[in-house]
Amino acid sequence: MAEPAITARRRRAVPPPRWVLLVMLLAVLAGVLLVNAYANASFTPDHQHSNQGQREVPTSVVNGGPIISANSEQVRSYRLPDRTIALTFDDGPDPVWTPEVLRVLDAHQVKGTFFVLGSQVARHPDMARNLVEGSHELGVHTFTHPDLAELSGWRRDLEYAQTQLALAAVTGVRTSLVRFPYSSHADAIDDQDWPVLIAAGDLGYLTVLNDTDSQDWALPGVDRIIENATPDGASGAITLWHDAGGDRAQTVAALDRFIPMMKERGYRFVTATEGLNLAFAAAGVDHRAESGAAATAGDRWRGRMLVWAVRGADHVLSVFGILFVLVGVLTLGRTAVLFLLAGRHARRRRARDWTWGPPVTAPVSVIVPAYNEKEGIAAAVRSLAGGDYSGGIEVVVVDDGSTDGTADIVDALRLPNVRVVRKPNGGKPSALNTGVALARHDLIVMVDGDTVFEPDAVRRLVQPFADPQVGAVAGNVKVGNRRSLIAKWQHIEYVIGFNLDRRLYETLRCMPTVPGAIGGFRRQALRYAGGMTDDTLAEDTDVTMALGRAGWKVVYEETARAWTEAPTSIGQLWKQRYRWSYGTMQAMWKHRRSVFDRGASGRFTRRCLFFLSLFGVLLPLLAPVIDLLALYGLFFLDRTATALAWLVMLGVQLVTAVVAFRLDREKLGVLWVLPLQQFVYRQLMYLVMIQAVVTALTGGRLGWQKLRRTGLEPVASRTG
């Protein structure tokens, strides 16, 4: 095909591929998803891991109380005095249940000790502030609720530090209390837990376990929760409850009964630190414990950064969730519309009484713009000149300044109905306009120099011109070199993404593109549309939109088949699709104002730009969300559900492919590569569209990029 000349008006530097920008974007997205995955680390209700023995745990701890002050230098444990209860709550704060728990505590004038998750503090800062403002006590329950005994030392320290930073940012305080996830009574501490507890003590933490466990997470019923939380006799107790992690209606109801019941038995309610100080006093220890202190300014600033990261990641994932639904709706909606309208188009065309009108036998001029097409020009011209059209075919090869002897190759064929026109390089639109001006006939067929026609393609392509309203006809483009995997992927794309879509667009009367590889035009329609222009890199889309705006019908003739040579390398494919995507957006931008036109111009443009924007630009730009969330889900969510969702999407595409191949009368065997297409080819097309949009938004100009050709085999030797 001819290469467009670059005029002075457009001679600006072509921006290089935004690989750095793309890598940075992907890195940011990956970072955001990882932050969210980390902050959303799933956890199960409190449990005890298998006992590893207690040879290293001091007997004073195993037989001691639930408050443990232990480090490398000393070990002490404490119990609450008799008739003293500390209500402790794990896993919050929660926007639903923490306020309900606070409502009950306030009603009974009781303070609680809340062992919070740092990730929850970052997500629900108002709830954390309410706890502090209500004079309740806070403790660290880690940032993501892992089993600390299974983590390395640096990870454990990170869990504590991040929770402290979240508290510093949100409440302005830090705490010295810690409770490990999945911990229990003191007598359950084993040799696996003990080093973790000592390490926490070396960091200045006071470990708070429990005497009674309500087991409210199991939802055993209000009566059973109260029974589980009630201490034996008159002994003091640190009781374990939960204000997050699920439905806590039973917890709230149980608290509302438990507190007054224990008060009637003479119990007092304290925070964990108040209970420890009472224990000190009872033991005659001259010491007073403090549960927390004001956070430093540095911790507050670092904490804000952490909170922003967590909440930002949550917002991004929420947006991704919305986009996921949007992409799903668009994909399924497009599939449904395709099945309905493309199927209707096929049934109408295959009806026995279907006809365009009287047979068209007027002579045809075939225009072949050529720039350095020595590999395939001979096969292309022979296929055109030898067509079985009885009306007569004139082939005009416009050599657009080739330097490889393209024109000489055509001359050497010595075909009587073929003319060669040599001109200086001026670009493909210029070559096409030259050919049209020199053509002798009013029915014009435009063909790329690398395309081979089937013998009856010209005859079938011009039959729709029996309808005087038809101004242009799009033919059926086939991939001729299907041996490589990348060519097979393009073959599938041509059948589904191009030919099936053209059935839809014809039905809706908003055909956006008559392909340069095989398209028929009325000279009158071309003249009315202003001919080919170099305003865009997609001159075929540009002129088709102009024809549609002018009120001409543009139709699709599936039986007129031509074979084109598809790119055989990723680099060549990238260049081609980059130009197509960018050129299409140029054409859309050029015709944007006509959406406000009245009559045929406005109706066509509104439909055309709507579908192109929705399915040609927006859907490819948003579709990566499917893959990103699928990858995210396989690592951090329910793998089975994620795999099932992905398989459903693949199933929809497979059904679409089968329908398209049946309508196009293609063999289904090649569809075995469709699943593989989802892992490479689809992502490549996403990146192409993203780069094209970035180029357009940054005001860059893209030059024509010539593809390397090797030539096609003769049509007769090629099978579907």
Automatic annotation (TrEMBL):
<feature type="transmembrane region" description="Helical">
    <location>
        <begin position="643"/>
        <end position="663"/>
    </location>
</feature>
<feature type="transmembrane region" description="Helical">
    <location>
        <begin position="684"/>
        <end position="704"/>
    </location>
</feature>
<keyword id="KW-0808">Transferase</keyword>
<dbReference type="InterPro" id="IPR011330">
    <property type="entry name" value="Glyco_hydro/deAcase_b/a-brl"/>
</dbReference>
<feature type="compositionally biased region" description="Polar residues">
    <location>
        <begin position="44"/>
        <end position="54"/>
    </location>
</feature>
<dbReference type="GO" id="GO:0016757">
    <property type="term" value="F:glycosyltransferase activity"/>
</dbReference>
<dbReference type="GO" id="GO:0005975">
    <property type="term" value="P:carbohydrate metabolic process"/>
</dbReference>
<keyword id="KW-0812">Transmembrane</keyword>
<dbReference type="Pfam" id="PF01522">
    <property type="entry name" value="Polysacc_deac_1"/>
</dbReference>
<feature type="transmembrane region" description="Helical">
    <location>
        <begin position="608"/>
        <end position="637"/>
    </location>
</feature>
<dbReference type="InterPro" id="IPR029044">
    <property type="entry name" value="Nucleotide-diphossugar_trans"/>
</dbReference>
<feature type="region of interest" description="Disordered">
    <location>
        <begin position="44"/>
        <end position="64"/>
    </location>
</feature>
<comment type="similarity">
    <text>Belongs to the glycosyltransferase 2 family.</text>
</comment>
<dbReference type="GO" id="GO:0016810">
    <property type="term" value="F:hydrolase activity, acting on carbon-nitrogen (but not peptide) bonds"/>
</dbReference>
<keyword id="KW-0328">Glycosyltransferase</keyword>
<feature type="domain" description="NodB homology">
    <location>
        <begin position="83"/>
        <end position="270"/>
    </location>
</feature>
<dbReference type="InterPro" id="IPR002509">
    <property type="entry name" value="NODB_dom"/>
</dbReference>
<dbReference type="Pfam" id="PF13641">
    <property type="entry name" value="Glyco_tranf_2_3"/>
</dbReference>
<keyword id="KW-0472">Membrane</keyword>
<feature type="transmembrane region" description="Helical">
    <location>
        <begin position="319"/>
        <end position="342"/>
    </location>
</feature>
<keyword id="KW-1133">Transmembrane helix</keyword>
<protein>
    <submittedName>
        <fullName>Cellulose synthase/poly-beta-1,6-N-acetylglucosamine synthase-like glycosyltransferase/peptidoglycan/xylan/chitin deacetylase (PgdA/CDA1 family)</fullName>
    </submittedName>
</protein>
